[in-house]
Input
Amino acid sequence: MRFIFVPRHPPLSKADIQRGTRSDRAVCIFREMYTMMELTDFDKRLLNLLQGNLPVCSRPFARLGEQLETDEEHVLERLAALKREGYLRRIGTFFNSERLGYRGTLIALEVDESCLPDVAAAVNRYPGATHNYERAGGDYNLWFTLLTVSQEAEEKILREVAALKGVKRAMSLRAKRRYKINVQFKLA
Output
């Protein structure tokens, strides 16, 4: 079983926040990122361990505590603080979605700038939508991955998203070959 640390990726740029042009929930999330607490050395060590293999046992956080020379309660307190401060979104397993019957697709959207927060929020409401982020430097400015149980389900969601106000174009980019990349963010 593999567990990972996942940083938040809000769909707005820092410049948008500084201009104060938007006042929706996504902006509030982004502001939190720029006023977060400083990571302690302990926090960095904890996050580094979480990106590896979390022990599969009845008390994995106690085992992490042993490795970090502290107790389970302290580990859980720090994880709660890291989540509250936006450093940690979730702790969970990665499953091979294809073996479980799901199909993954990368979706690229061209969205009017003024509609971007609303479209991003609508995309986030789909249970299979992940990694939703704004990308500058091209026509397609909102990208997300989508897991569905069938091609029909994928096409239905894509039609719904393409019909949202402000969406000019939508493109589905199915993978031809799967590469497994183990990404870890080494914290000093």
